[in-house]
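Protein entry
_____________
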Amino acid sequence: MLVMLVPFAIVVALLTLAAVLISRTYNRLVAAQQVAVNSFSQIEVQLKRRYDLIPSLVEAVRSYMGHERETLEAVIAARGNASSKLSGVSGQLNDPATVSSWSASESAFGGAIGRLAMLIEAYPELKANETIAGLTEELTSTENRIAFARGLYNDTVTTFNIDRQSFPTVVYAAAIGFGDDLMLLNFDDQPEIHNALKVELVA
């Protein structure tokens, strides 16, 4: 009888150990995922700030550059596309198609802003306008905050992905609800934004 109890005790001990290991892993992955989601929410805040700035900037520029209607309309259209896709991303950060589609829309929006910034740079009367100068300064600050928030998000996602892919977690990650990596954000860099958005008031 005692001989039979020993293997049973070993099995119980192993099952208990496995349960503790899986429970700790689950809690750790939940925590890491929530840190990443929170980091993404910081990106959302800055992107929404950028979305809010653009209509005012476009309207201020329009009074000077009505002939650049195509460029201005392209900026507004790109803003609308990126903004509409943002709301569906935060809950699907592990879906490559969703994140890729939204990232492409943000890259297109960044390109449109860059073209607008270069136009502003080419017109001295625009650079002398206090409203436009103020808006472009806010936009530059926002672009920098977006870049910082994106870097922080990518760091937290990398931490989560490494943990999820590490052995032995990778063996049972899918079974406890973590079958996919979170997606890194790789917007196309738009150096023309930072180079052109240096509008200063003309003395």
